[in-house]
Amino acid sequence: MLRTVVCVSGGGTNLQAVINAVEDGRITNVQLVGVISNNRSAKALERAQNHGIPAFCISPRDFTEREQFHEAFLEKLRELTPDLIVLAGFLVAIPPAVVREYEGKIINIHPSLIPSFCGVGYYGLKVHEKVLERGVKVTGATVHFVNDGMDEGPIIAQKAVDVEEGDTPEVLQRRVMEQAEWILLPKAIDDFANGRIAVENNRVKTTDVTLCEPSLCIRKSV
User: Fold this and answer.
1) What is the pLDDT of residues 184-202, one digit of tens each?
2) CA distance readout (Å), 190 to 21, 33, 111
3) Residue 85, Cβ neighbours under 10 Å: how many?
4) Is-contact 140 161, C-beta < 8 A?
5) Tell me: the pLDDT tens digits for 91-137?
6) Which end of the chain is more exposed for a tag (fewer CB within 10 A), N or C?
7) Rounded CA separation 76/95 (Å)
8) pLDDT of 206
9) Residue 214: predicted pLDDT
10) Chain centre distance of CA 35
11) For residue 55, with 0-12 CB atoms within 10 Å meaning exposed, 13-18 middle and 19 or more buried, which class applies?
12) What pLDDT score does 211 carry?
């Protein structure tokens, strides 16, 4: 079983989609061993507890120095010994030490079609505000591996979602979650857990046939 930790800052709707998919068998070979939030009032922590998943809050506000937070975050991950770390709306920059230690084992869901509307300052509702401000006709979501850049890791999967007349940021956010995020993220986790993903030359290859053992699927080119 692939030991999986989910990191989330807010309501945890993507977390719930993952939990549901594990429980109904759409994600296989995965054990959810912990949920980490930087926000002690995050509903995601309650969602985790309701399903018997250990939940932890590690907040930068609890430390006088950012480096102390980084050390505490890494220490908790080491304690949980994950094979995969899923960023499901985690609004904290991942410390470089974590990226190095878990290279090729961190994936993120982003609410746009990368490389559009991503990078510094593009998170949560702000993404959808910018999409509507720019007047694009199609948006969507992306699952990608995490590297030391901001939303720059190899893309695993994307799904387009139409922008409709009269959309508000909140309405569009919900549609992107329902039509893209809640579909893409569970599928990506299941593919990773069952060895259907490999990264070569900074590009992701996927197949319906197992490519390799999950622990060996990610090359150093990630």
Assistant:
1) 999 999 999 999 999 998 8
2) 9, 16, 20
3) 24
4) yes
5) 999 999 999 999 999 999 999 999 999 999 999 999 999 999 999 99
6) N
7) 13
8) 84
9) 55
10) 12
11) buried
12) 55
Which residue intervals of the chain are DSSP H helices? 13-23, 43-50, 66-80, 96-101, 125-134, 169-176, 182-193
Who's near 105: CB < 8 A, 6+ residues apart? 82, 83, 84, 85, 218
Question: Residue 6 in contact with residue 83, Cβ under 8 Å?
Answer: no
Residue with tokens 């979501």: 141
Give the span between the Cα atoms of 123 and 110, in whole angstroms.
Answer: 8
Tell me the HSE value of 58 on the side-chain side, using a 13 A CA sphere.
22
Determine contact, residues 187/157, Cβ cutoff 8 Å: yes
pTM over 0.85: yes
Cβ-based burial of 100 (10 A; exposed 0-12, middle 13-18, buried ≥19)? exposed
Looking at residue 34, its amino acid is: G
pLDDT, mean over the chain? 93
Q: 181: which DSSP letter?
A: I
Question: Cα(157)–Cα(52) distance, rounded to whole angstroms?
Answer: 29
The secondary structure of 117-170 as a DSSP string is T-STT--THHHHHHHHHHT-SEEEEEEEE--SSSS-SPEEEEEEEE--TT--HH
Residue 100 — φ and ψ, nearest 5°?
A: -65, -45
Cα gap 131→93, rounded to integer Å: 22
* pLDDT, position 156: 97
Residues in the chain: 222
